[in-house]
Request: fold
Amino acid sequence: MDMKALFKISYGLYVVTSNDGEKDNGLILNTVMQVTSNPARIALAINKENYSHDVIKKSGMLTVNCLTEKTPFSVFEKFGFQSGKNVDKFAGDTVTRAQNGLVILPEYANAYFSLQVVEYSDLGSHGMFLCEVTEAKVLSDEASMTYAYYHAHVKPKPETKKKTGYVCKICGYVYEGDPLPADFICPLCKHGAEDFEKL
Ligand code: FE
Reply:
């Protein structure tokens, strides 16, 4: 099997917002998919290591912000490279909210939609949320950012000096050392060893 075949699936990139009852939270997600149209249902898979997984499982509520190609890397750092477990990602921000009260990002999103979870499936490493759309709004005509666009134009290129180690193909984190432990989890984006490649 050539598992690289799976890299040919195209994805978008989203900031999914939620609230744990005390603070707003958001994470970067690529696994968002419309699965039915009438009624419109959306499926998302979230890694259980992510704080948002637990928050959304408990609250049953989330809002998906569709990022545009103009979204700067700093947004990915803010929402993707730190955890809501120990950081308030919206601290000090003046925020705009959707009807469900969750934060939206009009500066970076061309659309948002709010979701109510109707079904949860335990996928082992991830939880899958099947959701109904409760609000949907287009914000601009900017092009949506795809995962491929992010890799080609947004993510800083890792330094390719003669270092021994492995680089995370998702976020660019470099693990210095060899071999990479099989159970290694990227401290930044929480992807596993299978998403690393040798420098
Ligand atoms: Fe990573």
User: Anything to note?
Assistant: The CA atoms of residues 18 and 56 lie 7 Å apart. The helical segments are 51-59, 73-80, 147-154. The chain has a mean pLDDT of 94. The two ends are 23 Å apart (CA to CA).
